[in-house]
Design goal:
Elements (H helix, E strand, L loop, with lengths): L1 H12 L5 E4 L2 E4 L4 H29 L5 H35 L4 H10 L7 H4 L3 H17 L24 H13 L2 H13 L5 E2 L1 H8 L14 H14 L4 H9 L71 H12 L4 H9 L3 H4 L10 H19 L8 H15 L5 E2 L1
Antiparallel strand pairs: 1-2, 3-4
Length: 418
């Protein structure tokens, strides 16, 4: 048989190709698909050879096999040979394709390069034109503006239970909330808003100067970090910037806590500046942290304020709800007056500490349709505000030029009356 001889000859020339030897038996590497087909072909040829030899031997030993049976054997042998020839053609085709797709060697690459005409690269293939760069920048910014609300993948697998662990918080944090919950009454909140609108503070400065001034404050309500305020502001903004969010979104990250400047002006302590916010004028939700401490609040037993809706109505809208006075409400009014931030950015500032709402989904019966849209914005921002806190100071001097430009873009009046 010519085919079998050819296989034996190849096996002698390449005894190790695609096989391993064990006890004189050739074992095909299962990962070598070509070797597996060769083995299959060899097995078919061996079976044909054995069938032929057996047939001839039987004819010699006995003439008892009927002629009809002999014809069937010959037809079977013919089919097997045809099958082998088909396999041979398939192997040749696959070998040719493998040769075409094989990576070129260094010599072949050099040969191809010599055959190709040498062309001098044009300027457009090296660097884009100014118009092209502007177009790409516009498309990038447009994409960021369209997808800013999509959740970031960066914090997808973060352990959220590692943050806001108030059960494990130090006594300083617990004492703060006991004081805040006892003193944030309807009467106080009405007076705080009157003071904000009528008092002249004469504290004019740029946004960056305000950030530097805020650096002197340590937030007594935060159980997650003791970093400086400017470090937290830059960490939040940088996390938003890293994810390619719009520039207005980045600015919100930078200034969202800037209202804590209130501590240096009209505050009675930190209890009316920092900490989680909540509605006053209706029943205090059990979803607020340390809810039992509200028992010391004069409004707790007031029949005007201790019902589900209190002084509000169903789905009246959060813009008509009086949230506990603090840095969120203060900075919201400053940004609304002086900045060009969109409504989503203003909502991020106003409600970012309203954890009973955007995290625990309390007070949803006070929401209107507009609040449902703003909730998406606040949730998109909250992950950066909460999970970007790491015990590592930012390089303020390095980041300052970028954020000065960002501030000027959205605050036309560089000097703000805080």
């Amino acid at each position: 048989m010519v085919v079998i001889s050819s296989f034996k000859s190849r096996a002698k020339q390449h005894p190790q190709r695609g096989t391993n030897m064990k006890n004189g038996i050739s074992l095909v590497d299962p990962s070598d698909s070509l070797s597996a087909q060769v083995l299959s072909l060899a097995c078919d040829m061996s079976r044909i050879s054995k069938a032929t030899s057996s047939s001839v031997s039987n004819q010699k030993r006995s003439k008892l096999i009927p002629e009809k049976r002999e014809g069937q054997l010959l037809e079977q042998i013919d089919d097997e040979v045809l099958h082998v020839n088909v396999l041979r053609n398939n192997l040749k085709t696959q070998a040719a394709k493998a040769a075409e797709t094989r990576e070129p060697t260094g010599e072949s690459v050099a040969s191809l390069q010599q055959q190709l005409p040498q062309q001098q690269p044009t300027q457009s293939t090296i660097t884009p034109t100014i118009e092209e760069e502007m177009s790409l920048q516009e498309k990038s910014e447009q994409l960021a503006d369209e997808n800013w609300h999509i959740a970031t993948e960066y914090y997808k697998n973060i352990d959220t239970k590692a943050f806001r662990q108030y059960e494990l918080a130090c006594d300083r944090v617990k004492s703060f909330y006991e004081e805040q919950h006892a003193k944030q009454t309807v009467a106080y909140n009405i007076q705080a808003r009157i003071n904000f609108k009528t008092k002249t503070r004469d504290q004019k400065m740029t946004v960056w100067q305000a950030l530097e001034k805020l650096n002197k404050l340590l937030d007594e309500s935060d159980p997650d970090t003791e970093l400086s305020q400017i470090s937290h502001a830059l960490q939040t903004a940088e996390a938003i910037r890293r994810d390619g969010r719009p520039r207005w979104f980045q600015l919100v990250g930078l200034i969202h806590d800037l209202g804590k400047l209130l501590y240096f002006y009209d505050s009675h302590g930190q209890w009316d500046v920092v900490g989680d916010t909540f509605p006053v004028g209706c029943k205090f939700s059990k979803r607020i942290i340390f809810p039992d401490s509200f028992k010391a609040n004069p409004d707790f037993l007031n029949p005007l304020y201790n019902t589900k809706y209190g002084i509000y109505s169903k789905h009246c809208g959060l813009d008509k709800v009086m949230l506990s006075w603090g840095h969120d409400e203060y900075m919201f009014h400053i940004a609304k007056k002086y900045s060009k931030l969109p409504k989503e950015g203003l909502a991020m500032i106003r409600y970012h500490s309203f954890y009973p709402w955007h995290q625990e989904m309390a007070y949803t019966y006070l929401m209107n349709d507009h609040d449902k849209e703003m909730l998406k914005a606040v949730k998109a921002f909250n992950q950066y505000d909460l999970y970007s806190k790491i015990e590592q100071e930012c390089d303020v001097d390095k980041l300052k030029p970028y954020y000065l430009d960002l501030i000027d873009e959205f605050f036309p009046d560089k000097v703000i009356d805080f």
